[in-house]
Amino acid sequence: MRLIGSALLMVVVIPCMAAAHPHIYIENSVRIMFDGTGMTGINVRWVFDEMFSSTMIEEYDSNKDGTFARQEVEALRRGAFSNLKNYHYFTYITIGSKAFDVRYVKDFRAVIQDHRIIYTFFIPCHVKADSRPKTITIAMYDETYYTDILLANYECKHKAAPGIVNSSIKEIENYNKSFYFGQIAPVELIVTFTK
After folding, report:
1. How far apart are CA 127 and CA 18, in angstroms?
2. pLDDT tens-digit map of 135-146
3. CA distance 161 to 136
4. How many CA within 13 A on the CB side of residue 56?
5. Quick one: CA dihedral 73, 47, 102, 130, positive or negative?
6. How many CA atoms lie within 13 A of 68 on its CB side?
7. CA 111 from centre of chain
8. How far apart are CA 95 and CA 34, in angstroms?
9. What is the value of pTM for the model shown?
10. Do 106 and 121 meet the contact criterion of CB atoms below 8 Å apart?
11. Strand partners for 61
């Protein structure tokens, strides 16, 4: 009976695991933005792999000139980006111990560079600084593992009144939030800042 159960588990689970391997690869760059009052949000840059990019270019570069015109970017936004709202744009943010729900983004752009599609967008997330340290945790990943999002680089950027808000950032792998059958630990950025 135990042998039958093990065989059944292999028949059901292994094909599911194989089917869920990544089909899209993204190099993710994150810039946490600050002004004189505190954190204002996150600038995000996604560089897609060449195979996915070629499919998207074929579909959305309608005049085949190797660039995205304004109307082509809008078509791409509606057809291949706006649905990510249902998945919080693959973004998980915690302010202190409270989850922040990413419901919308701003300033979406898409360009073609070296045969790869690049998305840029801004996630508004206003957190006021004060004399006590505040901690924000940011992670970007797809729990289904259909998309593999690799953190390429990150930084804190102080646009206005530098020195009024001090910030630091570090990267950790959080094994307590492992996904894809416990095999993948999301990379989290821990941002701490004070006024």
Report:
1. 41
2. 999 999 999 999
3. 21
4. 28
5. negative
6. 25
7. 17
8. 15
9. 0.87
10. yes
11. none
Spatial distance between the Cα atoms of 59 and 32, rounded to a whole number of angstroms:
32
pLDDT in tens, 35-57: 999 999 999 999 999 999 999 99
Distance CA 4, CA 127 (A): 55
- Map tokens 């898409």 to a residue: 110
Q: Lowest mean pLDDT of 77-91, 157-171, 181-195, name the range.
A: 157-171
pLDDT, tens only, 55-77: 999 999 999 999 999 999 999 99
**77/155 Cα distance (integer angstroms):** 26
d(CA 41, CA 114): 28
> Which residues, 6 or more positions from 180, have their beta carbon under 8 angstroms from its beta carbon?
17, 20, 143, 145
Domain boundaries, the chain: 22-194
Q: How far apart are alpha carbons 112 and 57 in whole angstroms?
A: 8
Handedness of CA 88, 93, 97, 98 (dihedral sign): negative
| Predicted local distance difference test score (pLDDT) of residue 159 | 84
